[in-house]
């Protein structure tokens, strides 16, 4: 506007909402992918990021050639809806510019728990959002109109379908109102800067998808042009820490502004303090592909915001998700950067201490990752990422009988992990167990476990994993 040509970065949009509202399916519909179909138990258990280039958005919105979209694309963050994954919803809502709250139009009687939780998180962070009122194709008698704008799709429906649609929308508007929010169907909304826009969608037949994309890329500019202006100062947040079989420990980050280069000196916040190192590999998935998918990555020399990026560094295992990644440019003061990292770490620690539930075991620094607290007596947990470790521990804590954790680790289960778990054989035998999620168990580890009496539990969802362990405990007690 004002005739000034500014370079814009892609807005970062977090997808939030209750279990099975259709968050992942909505992204699948936009990406023309099938991530949801590959998820164990049909549930999302890992935060993800996908870059949608402007060409794809143009194509989906069937815009006339001369119509402009000013942003270069959208970076979308998918989050899990299950209760134990609140950590990932907090992370997503903390680093996004805007959000989409997905609500299932077929669910009546009040907003669901994680919908309300999502609305609270967004309010707390002052994040603006739209509501995708999803699954319109499930209204009784709906005639599908693939990819149609919602107005066109509604015109094609019978009076009965249209009136059911209308009362369900009214219902959701009322429920939002009860949660202190004014909302309206976006095409009836006269105050799009104040009143929350509702976009009806289907993630199966794609009605309303053009509307949602177009609204997002235009509305963000009306409400935050300044914030979306590209600047050189790096703003970058750690999203997740993974063990990758090719690259070792990797850090998934969201580059919010500025640029990263291969070889850049960085200061990473870890539980043991700031660690200064260099970017060894700078990787992204291909456009329209998930960052979290264990797939093929593109190598880069330089990347400009906004992007979801996988960074490989040597010898770094304990970066704290949610903290800032600091880039030290030539001429920058390294000491100052490290001091800033110390502040970040203190902030992250104070968040952990808020809900501390058991005494930590000091001698074992390796177990102290992120929001994770360990006890002297407890089970050993192993997972592929810090976020899922946290979710498992969160779920263990939420049980009616508390199951404490004595230690945890990232990546495949090795003999050394079993050795650590054997310590419980003498202390508290029922806890001599490894709960392994989404990681390989090495054959030597299995052998040692069988010999020593340590039980290894493996499952593809956090819930099944904990269930199989609690089932075992119950049997022991009988
Ligand atoms: P979590 O990640 O587990 O919180 O769920 P989610 O919100 O990502 O929902 P997901 O994409 O896993 O969809 C849940 C179920 O609803 C799946 O069986 C989908 O196929 C189905 N579904 C999602 N969106 C739609 C839709 O628009 N129409 C219909 N008919 N089914 C849908
Ligand atoms: Mg999902
Ligand atoms: Na699901």
UniProtKB/TrEMBL annotation:
It is found in: Cytoplasm. Its EC number is 3.6.5.3. The keyword S-adenosyl-L-methionine does not apply. Keywords: Cytoplasm, GTP-binding, Hydrolase, Initiation factor, Metal-binding, Nucleotide-binding, Protein biosynthesis. Transmembrane segments: none annotated. Residues 8-229 form the Tr-type G domain. One of its GO terms (molecular function) is metal ion binding. It is an enzyme of class 3 (hydrolase). GO terms for cellular component: cytoplasm. Its main location: cytoplasm. Belongs to the TRAFAC class translation factor GTPase superfamily. Classic translation factor GTPase family. IF-2 subfamily. This is Eukaryotic translation initiation factor 5B. It comes from Urochloa decumbens. The lineage of its organism: Eukaryota, Viridiplantae, Streptophyta, Embryophyta, Tracheophyta. The chain holds residues 228 to 705 of 882 of the full protein.
């Amino acid at each position: 506007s004002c005739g000034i040509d500014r370079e814009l970065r892609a807005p970062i949009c977090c997808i939030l909402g209750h279990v099975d509202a259709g968050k992942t399916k909505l992204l699948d519909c936009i990406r023309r992918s099938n991530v949801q179909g590959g998820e164990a138990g049909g549930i999302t258990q890992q935060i993800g990021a996908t870059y949608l280039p402007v060409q794809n958005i143009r194509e989906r919105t069937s815009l006339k050639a001369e119509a402009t979209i000013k942003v270069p694309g959208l970076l979308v963050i998918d989050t899990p809806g299950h209760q134990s994954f609140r950590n990932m919803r907090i992370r997503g809502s903390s680093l996004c510019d805007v959000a989409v709250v997905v609500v299932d139009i077929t669910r009546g009687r009040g907003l669901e728990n994680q919908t309300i939780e999502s609305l609270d998180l967004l309010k707390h962070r002052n994040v603006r959002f739209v509501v995708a009122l999803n699954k319109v194709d499930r209204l009784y008698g709906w005639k599908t109109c693939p990819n149609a704008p919602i107005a066109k799709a509604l015109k094609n429906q019978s009076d009965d379908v249209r009136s059911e649609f209308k009362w369900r929308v009214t219902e959701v508007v009322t429920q939002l109102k009860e949660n202190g929010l004014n909302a309206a169907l976006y095409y009836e909304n006269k105050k799009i800067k104040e009143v929350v826009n509702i976009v009806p969608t289907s993630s199966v037949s794609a009605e309303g998808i053009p509307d949602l994309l177009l609204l997002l890329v235009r509305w963000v500019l009306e409400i935050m042009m300044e914030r979306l202006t590209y600047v050189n100062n790096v703003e970058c947040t750690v999203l997740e820490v993974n063990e990758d079989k090719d690259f070792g420990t990797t850090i998934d980050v969201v580059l919010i502004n500025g640029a990263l280069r291969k070889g850049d000196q960085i200061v990473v916040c870890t539980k043991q303090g700031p660690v200064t190192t260099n970017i060894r590999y700078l990787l992204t998935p291909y456009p329209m592909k998930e960052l979290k998918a264990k797939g093929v990555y593109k190598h880069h020399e330089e990347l400009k915001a906004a992007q979801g990026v996988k960074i490989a560094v040597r010898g770094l295992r304990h970066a704290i998700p949610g903290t800032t990644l600091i880039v030290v440019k030539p001429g920058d003061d390294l000491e100052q950067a490290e001091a800033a990292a110390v502040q970040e770490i203190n902030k992250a620690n104070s968040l952990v201490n808020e809900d501390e539930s058991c005494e930590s075991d000091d001698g074992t620094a390796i177990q102290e990752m992120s929001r994770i607290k360990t006890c002297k007596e407890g089970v050993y947990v192993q997972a592929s990422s810090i976020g899922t470790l946290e979710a498992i521990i969160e779920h263990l804590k939420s049980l009616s009988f508390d199951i404490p954790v004595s230690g945890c680790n990232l990546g495949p289960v090795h003999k050394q992990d079993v050795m650590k778990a054997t310590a419980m054989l003498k202390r508290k035998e029922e806890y001599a167990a490894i709960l392994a999620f989404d990681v390989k168990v090495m054959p030597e580890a299995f052998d040692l476990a069988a010999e020593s009496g340590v039980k290894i539990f493996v499952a593809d969802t956090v819930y099944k994993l904990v269930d199989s362990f609690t089932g075992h405990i119950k049997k022991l007690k009988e």
